[in-house]
Amino acid sequence: MLAEDERRAAFCPVECGRCGAGVLAAKFSPQHTTVQWSAEAVRACAEFSVAVSLGRPSALVEGCGSLRDSIDAAVMAGRLEVSPPLEVSPPLEVTPP
User: Mind listing the pLDDT tens digit of every residue in the chain (97 residues)?
Assistant: First the structure.
């Protein structure tokens, strides 16, 4: 039996205050953020554009500091909630008769 996926959080749209790139973001803790980038958002992102213009593949860019600041601002404004993972009980072990 597979354990239930405990990564439950509400993904919310967040727009970068610098370039306007729109992503979906979820916060599991103050340190843990999950970001879903679309191809359009990668193309719009100023920091990704700089890296790509220097010959670095976008897949190797760690992230965007401006977007991180925008996500933090969304949390502070109450537009994005910090939703810790749900507690999931371990599967019960069944001993054969």
Answer: 445 555 556 799 999 999 999 999 999 888 999 999 999 999 999 998 999 899 998 888 888 999 999 999 999 999 999 887 665 556 667 666 6
In this structure, what are the phi and psi dihedrals at residue 50, rounded to the nearest 5 degrees?
A: -60, -45
pTM score: 0.75
Cβ neighbour number for residue 37 with a 10 Å cutoff: 19
Question: How far apart, in whole angstroms, are the C-alpha atoms of residue 97 and residue 95?
Answer: 6
Query: What amino acid occupies position 17?
Result: G
